[in-house]
Amino acid sequence: MKNEGVLKGSLTIEITLLMPFILGVFMFVLFSGFVLHDKCVVNKACMSAALRGSQESDDNIAVDKAALALSEVLPGKLIGKWSYNTSIDVGKDVIRITFDGDTDIGSGLVKRVLSTGNTSHSYECESFRLKEAEYIRTSRKSGVGYCL
User: Is residue 68 domain-resident?
Assistant: First the structure.
């Protein structure tokens, strides 16, 4: 009858020892989600710029449209601090968007742990330029007509 009404504290001590590990895993998953989100936004911006630029027949307008698409998608949408460069190459048949960026991870333990890894990202998207005559012929063959 001695132990009646006395609670054991072993569970509390075990959870206290496991809590740093559980919080570390949670923070890693959260940080990985931020990085994945930024990668998806950059990829979308790259593809969107290539598609918008490919719709123009004039090279200067194609570059302007692609740059406008990049400026609409990238600023304010990225969670991390990025330093990046974009280049737009317009060829006869293809438009190519190149994104080279580096993520600023921050300071402290996270930066020291991840500094050995690669924090730079590079994306290249391309789209074939739209040829008006082929587009009109394809539209007419499909029965849609010229005016959509």
Answer: yes
